[in-house]
Amino acid sequence: MTAWQELGTGTDGRTRPAVRWNGSAPRPGGAEPWPGGWQPLGARFRTGPEGGRGTNFALWAPQAEAVDLCLFDERGRESRHRLTEQTYQTWHGYLPGVLPGTRYGFRVHGRWDPWTGARHNPAKLLLDPYARAVDGAYTAHDATCGAVRNWPERDVADTVRDDRDSAPHVPKAVVVHDDDDWYDDQRPKTPWAETVLYELHVRGFTMRHPDVPPELRGTYAGLAHPAAIAHLTRLGVTAVELLPVHHHVSEDHLQARGLVNYWGYNTLGYFAPHAGYSASGSRGQQVGEFKRMVRALHAAGIEVILDVVYNHTAEQGVMGPTLSFRGIDNTGYYRPDRSRRGYADYTGCGNTLDTRRPPVIRLITDSLRYWVAEMGVDGFRFDLAAALARGGDGVEMEHPFLAAVSQDPLLSRVKLIAEPWDVGPGGYQVGGFPPLWGEWNDHYRDTVRDFWRGARPDVRELATRLSGSSDLYQRGGRRPYASVNFVTAHDGFTLRDLVSYDRKHNGANGEDNRDGTDDNRSWNHGVEGDSDDPAVRSLRVRQLRNLLTTLLLSSGVPMLTAGDEMGRTQGGNNNAYCQDNETSWLDWSLLDDPDWRSLAELTARLVHLRRAHPVLRQRAFFSGRPAGPDGQRDLTWLTPAGREMTDADWFSPGQALAMRLSGSAISERDQRGREVRDADFLLLLNAAAEPRHFTLPVPHVPVLDTALAGAPDPVPVAEVLLTGRSAVLLTAPAAPRPA
C-alpha cells in the first residue's frame, strides 16, 4: 500500500483526485528538501523533478541567517526542515510527498537587535505571507510576543527576547492545490456609471436568514444560497462590497473581554479567505467555497468587491504578537519610526506597511492579482488608502504603489475604490486620487445628513453633492462616478439609528463609550432610541425615505449599507466592530413590518429607476449650458416658485430646492454613436418642517413621494404641495430621437 491515498473532490466542486496521507508511512518531511525554485513565493503543490508530487516553498527573508520549514501532522506534531537554498534574498526548497492539506509555518533565525529594528526570533512560528489558506485560531498568550511582555522595566521590555514556543497558540498555513480554470464563470463587467454598491458582512448577512439552511448561515456558501441572492436581485444592486474576507484574527484586548474583531480589519493573511466564514472546512476547502460564492453572484449579474486592509497588519505595535511579517523581516515590511525601534503609525493600529519598498509593493500587487485572476473578484475598496501612498514627505499621488496599480494590465481594469484618508498628518485626501480610482465621498455623507436634519443654512453645498461633486472630481479627467456616495457605512450609525439617536450607545464594546465618533450628524426627532409615538415613528420613516431617495438619485455611484433598506438597528452602537451577535446581524423579520417592507420596496424602486434612466446616472459632469434640440440646459436649479436660481437665491437661507434634469441634453452616446435621449426628471426637496408649494415650469407626472408609503397618482400636475421634510420625484415624457 502506498503512503498516500487519492480521495475527494477538487476545490471547484468537480470530482477529481485529491490526496491525503493515510498514516502508513513516515510523517511528511522525513527527507531533506531538494533545492526547488525561488519563485513564485509561498507554497506551490506541483510535480517534482522526478515526476513525483510535492510542494515547493519559497520565503523572502533578506536578513535571515537560516530558515526552518515546519510541517504539522494531524496530531499537531512538528517536523522541521532547514531550507539551505537562497536566491535573490529568497529561501526555498522542494519537499516530495508534501500534498494539499498539509499545515506548515516558518521559523526564521537571525539577529535580535530591536534598537536597529531587527526582531528575528526562531521560537515564534510564522505564517507564510503568501499562504493560500489558514487553519487554526490565534489565541491571546504572552508566548506569541517576540519580546517579554511582563518584563519589569516597561520602557525596555520590547528589547528583551521571549524564547517560549508560540506554535500552540498561532494559526498554521495550509498547502492548497489550485487547478481551477474558471471555465464556467461570466463576469458581469458592470460599467462604473451603472454601478450600485451594497456593503455587507459575509457572516452578518445570513446569520438570521430563515431561508438559508442553519449549517450555511454566516458563510460564503450562505451568501451564495439562492435565498440570499434573491434579496440582492430584488433590490437591483450590481455589486456587493464585502467587509474584509482576508484571513484575520482578534486582538488580545478583545479576547480578554470575550469579544472578537467582527468587522475583520485586522488582517494576517493577504491571500487566504477567512476560514471562519467557511462551511466546508479550513484545510483548503475555504478556497473552493469562496470561488463558488463568486460564481453564484456572477451568475446573478452581481460583481464582488473586496474591502482590503493593506495599510497595517494584525501584529500591531512592537509588543503585539509576532505572527508573520515582524519575525520574517521587521524593517523590510514595516515603516519604522525615527528610532527604528518602533513603527510609524499612520493607521491607529500600531504599525504601517512600508509601501516605499519594492517587496511590499510586490506583496500587495501579487495579492490583488491573485484575488482577481484566481478567485474571480471584480474590484477592491482600500481601507485607509492614503497610508498606501505615503512617501518620504507625506501622501504622494505619484507614489510607486499607485503607479504599479495603474500600469498593471489586470488591476487597471477592475474597480478601485479608495477610502481617501488615514490618521497621519496630511492624510485627508478626498478628491486627490488619480484617474481609475473611485473614492468614498464623506463630503457627500455629511452634507446630506446635515440637510435633512435641518443643519444647513442654504442649499449650495447640497446642489454640488447632488450633481456629482465636480469641485472634488472634475480635475484630471475624472468623471462623476469617481464619487462613491454614501450616507451610512459599516462604521457609524445605521440609517435607522441616524434618525433615532443623538448620541452613541457603545457600552457593550467594553470601552466605557469612549470608542466611536461623536460627530454623527444625527437627529433623534425628539426621543432617544425606539419610540411608540406614531408621529415620531412616521417622521423617522419619512426621513429614511428622504435619505435613500437623495442617495439613489444623485450623480455618482451610490453605496447602500446592508439592512438600511429594511430598517436595521444596532441600538445606537456606532462602532459595532466587536459585536458578532444580533447587534450586527441582519434581522430578516423586519420585512414582516409594513413600514420596513415598504422601505425595502422603495429602495428597489429607486434602484430600478436609476437603472432604467440614463439621465439619473450621468457619465459626465453637467455643463449647465443650453444643449439638445430644444436648447434646454442639462441641469437647471429652480426655486419653489419655478424660476431659475439666481446668485441671490443661492446665498439666501433656505431648505428647499428643485433640480431639473433634461433627458434631451445628455452628453452620452450609445454604442453606435447615437445621442442618448431620456425623459426629463424634476426632483423637489423640502427639509423644512413646514409644507412648501412648488410651481412647476411645465406639468409633470409624480413618480414617487416620500410622504406616501406607496406610489402617488400618475396624473400630470403643475403645482405640488410638498409635505414638510419630504421629497417628490416627477417626470415629463422623453423627447423623440431624431430620425
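the 2nd protein, sequnce then structure:
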Amino acid sequence: MSVSMVFVLIVIVAMVSALLFEIARPDMIVFSALVVLLLSGILTTEEALRGFSNPGMLTIALLFIVVGTVQKHGLIDQMMIGWLNKGKSLKGSLFRIFLPLPLISAFLNNTPIVVTLTPLLKKWCEERNIAPSKVLIPLSYVTILGGTITLMGTSTNLVVHGMLIDYGLPGFSLFQLAIVGIPITIVGLIYLFTIGNMLLPENKGFSKQVAEDSRKYIAEMVVEETFPHANQTVEEAKLRDLKGLYLIEIIRNQTRISSVSSKTVIQSGDRLIFTGLIATIADLQKRKGLTLKTGTDLQLDDLKNGNTQLAEAVVSHESSLLSKTIKQSQFRSRYDAGVMAVHRNNERIKSKVGDIILRPGDTLLLLAGNGFVEKYQQSNDFYVVSSMKTPKTLQESRLVGWFSLLVLLGAIACVIVGWLSMFKAMALAVLILLVTKSVSMDDAKNDVQFNVLLLIASAFGVGAAMTKTGLAQWVADGLLAVGQPFGLLAILVLIYLLTSIFTELITNSAAAVLMIPIGIEMASNLQLDPMGFAVIITIAASASFITPIGYQTNLIVYGPGGYKFMDYVKVGTPLSILVMSVTIGIVYYYWF
C-alpha cells in the first residue's frame, strides 16, 4: 500500500467510526472527511466539487421539490386511509394498504410516506385494539422494498446512477432495477404476511401506555394560603430547577396556564402539575403550603383542553437536538412545547426529563401549542407522528394537489418513452410548478433537504479518492482473493454482505458510495458487466432491515411501535437473507 492509500484508508475508517458512534450529523462527518482529503492534496478542487454538480445529486434536489408538492397536499394519505377503511378484516385491510404501497414508494420519497402513514395506521390499530407493532415495521420494510423498483424510488438509486455516469457507464434506466426490485418485493410481502407476522411483537402504543400509567408521570400539588411564596414568580418560589420534577402546567380556577415560565406568578389556590421523576416528590412535600393531591383524577387527556394538544415526535438522526439535554436545547422556548416523557427502546428513561440527552429514535411525548404539528411537520429535527387530524395546510387545495400529481406522472411518462432524461424531466416539472404557482419559492426551498444533498455530494468525493489512490483496487483485489476460490457466486455474496454491513452501521447512500468504486474495479478484474455489480450494491444499500439506524423509515417507526433493537434483528434478518438470495440469483443469471 502507498502512503496516499494508507492516508485515505485512515480517513475512511475515522469517518465510518464517527458515523457509527453518531459524533455529529452524518452530512457534517462526510463533509469533514472530504475537506481533509482536499486539504491534504489527495483531491483537487475540481475532484472534490464534482459531486455537487453530479446529475444524480441534482436530480434528487429537484425530486424533493416535485414530490414534496404532491405530498404536502395530503392526497396520498387521504386516499390510502380511505382505501384502508374499506377492508372488512384485519388481514384484508392490511392487504389493501400494503399491496399498492410498493407502487407509491417506487415513485415517491419513502420517508414522507412513512411519516404520513405512521400516525394514521397507529390510530387505526388503537381504535380496533390491534397492536401497532404488528403493522409499523412492515410499513417501513414494504416502502423500502418498493423503493428498489425504479430509478427514482430512493436517493441511493440516483446516487449510484450518478456515479456510474461519472465512470463513463450508461447508468440505470427508469425501470432497470425492477428486474430485481419486483421479485424481492413480492417475496418480502409473502414473508411479512406469514413468518414475519408471527415474529413481530405485540406492544401497546406509546400514548396508550402513558395514558394507562399517567399517575406515574403526573403529580398534582395544591398551593395553600400558608405557602410563603404566594404571589411570587416560579423562580422566586424555587420551583424551576427541581431535582427530578418539572412544572408543566398551572390550573387556576377554570384557567390553564400551559406555558409556565420562570416569571409566571404563583397564587394561592393554584393546582401545580408536575412531570418528571415522580420518585422525588417527597422532597417537595416537605415545603410548607404545598399539599400533594393523592388519587387525582387528572389524566393526560385533560391537558389537551384549551390551547394545548398532545403530540408525539420521533427524534431524527439528522436532528440539531442530538447530543444535547432537553434543557440545553431550550426545547420549550424553541418549539413552544414541553417534553412530558421520553421513551427509548420502549422504556421510560429514569432521570429528570430536562437532563435527558436525546438520541436518534427517541420518542417524545409533548404538550404543545395547537400549531405545533402544522408548523413542524416538515422539520429535520424530528418526525411528528402524533395521531391527530391532517393539518389544515395539507388540505388547502385539492386542485393543486391533483395538478402536481399529474405533473409528476407526466414527467415520469417523458422518461419512460425516452423523450427526456430523469434530470431534464424533473427540471421541467419544477419549472411548471413554479410558473403555475403550485409551489412558492419558499416552499421549494424548504422541501429541498440540503443536509441530504451535502452528504451525497461529499460522499462522491470520498469515493473518488478511493479510486484515485488505488484503495478501491486494493480492496477489490483482497475480496477477489478471498472469494475467487469459491466461484463467482461467493464473490457476489461478499459484495452484498459488505454493502449491507456498511448500510446497517452508517447510512445507505454512504455505503453505496464506498462500495461502487470497489464493485467497478472487481468487474474490471473479472472482465464482467459492471452493471451487475452496481445492481447488487444498490439493492444491498437500500435493503436495510436488521437495525433501526440503517434506514430513516426504520427509525421513524422505532418509537411509535414500541420496538426494541432486537425486534429488528429478529424480523429483519430472515428478510435480509431472502432478499440477498433472490437478488444474487437474478443478477447471476441475468447479467453474468
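The first strand starts at residue 218 and ends at 223. Residues 387-395 have pLDDT under 50 and may be disordered.
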